[in-house]
Each structure stands twice: as structure tokens, then as C-alpha cells.
Task: structure prediction
Amino acid sequence: MKKFSFKAKLWIWPGVGGWHFVNLPKDLAIKVRKVAKPYGSGFVAVSVTVGKSTWQTALFPHRESDTYLLSVKKSIRKKEEIFEDDDLKISFVLL
Result:
């Protein structure tokens, strides 16, 4: 399994729903594209760790920013006491 790590700032998607995301750095997105096996509209299945929490999700391709978005679900934000504009240390493996 290929493991990746990065740091990024948590932000909220504008509009309905209040989804919270981080953007993968563009250089990391390039590395992921080279080895990932995307499904659907380019989603990449991953297992993510932030703090002591690990969950399975997908990287969302974001054409406007030419990278992937990673959502951080509410249960993880609550457990890890994460809020908008926090800088996160994130690691993930491709599934």
C-alpha cells in the first residue's frame, strides 16, 4: 500500500450542507493520479487518518483547482475537535 501525508487547512464548502474539506497539495495530487485506480467520475478510494481517527472515504476530483478534495466528516471533526481554518496533519493510503 502506498501511504501519503500532507498538511492542509480545513474549509467549508459554500452553500447548503456544510461539507468540510481540505485540498490536497497539487504536487501530491499528481503523485496520486499516477498510481490511483479511480472509479466513477474520478473518485479515489482511501483510508484516512487524522489524529487518532481513521476512516474510509474517497478523494473527490476538483477540476477547478486541478487537485483532489478530501471531506472530513462531522463525527471525525467532533472527536478530534477540528474546526474551520484549522491546520490538519493528514495521512492516507489508497484502497
Remarks:
- The mean pLDDT is 95.
- The domain at 3-94 is CATH 2.40.30.100 (Elongation Factor Tu (Ef-tu); domain 3).
